[in-house]
């Protein structure tokens, strides 16, 4: 089944992918793809390989071609990259950069100290990456905290944007009108089924900035119709006491991004020049206690309770950390629950906690490679 002329321009390799990569374990499965943890034989670098059976693509060729076209164009320090593509008679293999630092909310909760300045630096990285996309004519369309992952477990790790399953490359003169995205982060013009453009991403960044400063979403209702009504009217508040210690500059920044009219909404360029990002108006006050408590309360981890094979990653990471490949030294763990017990146990060493975090965050983050 041909996948279009553009695929040939992507220089897909037709050699056996397993000649170059050792497949370790399945990390997860999506609607029509499977993600495998793999190690490049020459460099021992870990990657995530998205394995797509061609049979499963029948009728969905455009979807996967769109994702590959978008990913292949992108080279940015804060965006998960597509490194190379292999093709066999039966499968397409996308070799993806593996990010193992975990989700944004987890890292905030784990911190003991968190300030507006920390949030400002995060948003600046996101704005830089999204500006890069917009300059290339790419609209992400599904920016949300779950799609923001840390590159590594390092304290000063950069943040990475992932999940391009809903991305769209703007053609010359094309206007997007397909309703897509995640409720709660989607811009009013999308819900109103009006033509929209890059401004939808700027709205989503405003929503993310709001959450980073208080720990709860600006729009929330159990009833989707009521939620959409709030968003359509751009009705949100800076509630007391949660916003009492947040600077007026931060609120001003959010107001300009969460502007109902996309024509007057800040662009990425304008947002990057705002004093809360480019100046020194972001406060140093520790807001960790309040924000982390609200994140725990408002963002349940049910979305992470997917059947990912965490055990395999735990074993692999432990071998890497201990500098051994001897299987016998590291008996397999029966389940992610036992991994948690390992971390919590009385004899837990710091190395074990580190291993738990690294492995578990890969498990939770790997959904980014799966096409819905």
UniProtKB/TrEMBL annotation:
Pfam families: Pkinase. It is found in: Cytoplasm; Nucleus. One of its GO terms (biological process) is nervous system development. Gene3D superfamilies: Phosphorylase Kinase, domain 1 (3.30.200.20), Transferase(Phosphotransferase) domain 1 (1.10.510.10). SMART domains: S_TKc. One of its GO terms (cellular component) is cytoplasm. GO terms for molecular function: ATP binding; calmodulin binding; protein serine/threonine kinase activity. InterPro entries: Kinase-like_dom_sf, Prot_kinase_dom, Protein_kinase_ATP_BS, Ser/Thr_kinase_AS. Residues 21-277 form the Protein kinase domain. ATP binds at residue 55. Keywords: Allosteric enzyme, ATP-binding, Calmodulin-binding, Cytoplasm, Isopeptide bond, Kinase, Neurogenesis, Nucleotide-binding, Nucleus, Phosphoprotein, Serine/threonine-protein kinase, Transferase, Ubl conjugation. Belongs to the protein kinase superfamily. This is Calcium/calmodulin dependent protein kinase I.
